[in-house]
Amino acid sequence: MKVYQTNEIKNIALLGSSGSGKTTLVEAMLFESGVIKRRGSVAAKNTVSDYFPVEQEYGYSVFSTVLHVEWNNKKLNIIFYFICNNRGCFLELCINALCYRYI
Questions:
Q1: Residue 74: how many CA atoms within 13 Å on its side-chain side?
Q2: Which of 75, 77, 81, 85 is nearest to 93 (CA)?
Q3: How far is it, in rounded angstroms, from Cα 71 to Cα 32?
Q4: What values do phi and psi take at 75, rounded to 5?
Q5: In this structure, how many other beta carbons lie within 10 angstroms of the beta carbon of residue 52?
Q6: 41-95 tens-digit pLDDT
Q7: Could you tell me the pTM of the whole model?
């Protein structure tokens, strides 16, 4: 894997409620960057980010996922996070990771 300089790394948080299109966007980003050969879909239960059986059963993300792609010689770290009212502390950790570039 290529070693990136700090200015070549971008951290992106995808935050939103159920059904807002986060999984679809992630699948498109992975496909367009060449990480995957075909886009998965929530309905087909074959997305990269929703791989736990409980996520496939419910049809929405339950756990946070960290993915990365290379685009225009930059490494994009994607923190994929489902927001609901009782997850505020995990959201804070997610945002701290983005701010301090722990990824």
A1: 12
A2: 81
A3: 9
A4: -100, 120
A5: 13
A6: 877 878 887 777 777 777 666 667 888 899 899 999 988 776 655 555 555 555 6
A7: 0.71
